[in-house]
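Appendix C reproduces, verbatim, an entry submitted by the partner laboratory led by Prof. M.T., so that reviewers can inspect both the input and the predicted structure.
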Amino acid sequence: MEQYYAIARTNDREALKNFSREISAPEYLYSSEPGTMDKTAAFRLFDSMKIEFASADFDDLTVQIHGVTAIAKYRDFSKVRANGDLIRTPMRFTNVWVKRGGKWQIVAEHSNSVQPPKLLPRHPHADKMARK
C-alpha cells in the first residue's frame, strides 16, 4: 500500500500504471457500487481518465495473512482531480492478495464510498421511554 501511495503522490501516471499492472494478477477483478470489471476493463477505464492526485493518503490499514493469502482493508481519503474536477470521496477498500513465486499479487479488490452516518429521526416518546 505504502509504495502505491508514494508513487501516486508523485503524479507519475506511467509509474503508477506500471506498478499497478505489476502487482495485479492476470485474474484480477475489481468491484464497486457500479459493478465488476476484469483487469483489462479496469485499466482501460484508468487509462481513459485524466487523474491527478492533489493528495494521496490512506489509514486504518489491517492485514490478515492466511498462508499464501492475505486480506488487506483500509480507508482511502485521497483528493484527486479527475477530468478537471477536484474530488474527495473517502473510500473503503478490501483487497485479496495471493503469494506466487515469492511475490504478492492482488487478485480481487472491492471499494465503496464511505458515507457519513445518517441521524435517524427522534422517536416522539423517546424521553418518556428512557425514564421507565
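The first strand starts at residue 24 and ends at 32. Additional entries are available on request from the coordinating office.
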